[in-house]
Amino acid sequence: MPHTLRIRQGLLDDLDTLAPLFDAYRRFYEQPADLDAARRFLHERLALRESVIFVAERVETSDNQTLGFTQLYPGFSSVAAQRLWILNDLFVIPEARGQGVGRALLERAREHAGRTGACRMTLSTANDNTGAQRLYEDVGYLRDTDVHYALPVP
Fold first, then answer.
1. Beta strands in the chain (DSSP E)
2. Residues in Cβ contact with 82 at an 8 Å cutoff, skipping those fewer than 6 apart
3. CA distances from 50 to 72, 105, 142, 145 (A)
4. What is the longest distance spanned by two Cα atoms in the chain?
């Protein structure tokens, strides 16, 4: 069956499709399943325009299947005095991995960053997520040598 991959910006109307993917993404990072929390979180980000989500869809002659998403958060570089984007989330359903979906989402995010005048994009991933690390490096991300810290806030 002929199909093509489409990457488009996600909207509030996509919540019913995005929430299960976002929940699966969180479970990948060992969080408990919570579809309601996933839906609420995404709704708030989109409604308040606090993030930009891109959706990957397989466009078929009779039906579209959502294959993955990426979510970007705006940030700023004080040193460069410019906007930057934090690529915080990237998820592709297991059966679509290795088919260029993640690469297409990353490219769409890069285009968005360029159009919005960003100086760079940043991301982080788990130390053991070597497949994602290979993809990031293959599309041009550079592993930094900075020391990062995190402070849990109760």
1. 3-9, 52-60, 64-77, 82-92, 121-123
2. 76, 117, 118, 119
3. 9, 19, 26, 28
4. 51
The residue among 94, 106, 122, 120 whose CA lies nearest residue 54 is: 106
Predicted confidence (pLDDT) at residue 149 exceeds the cutoff of 90: no
pLDDT tens sequence across 23-76: 999 999 999 999 999 999 999 999 999 999 999 999 876 678 999 999 999 999
Strand-pairing partners, residue 69, are 55, 91
Q: How far apart are CA 26 and CA 121, in angstroms?
A: 21
**Tokens 């040193």 map to which residue?**
79
pLDDT at residue 147 is higher than 50: yes
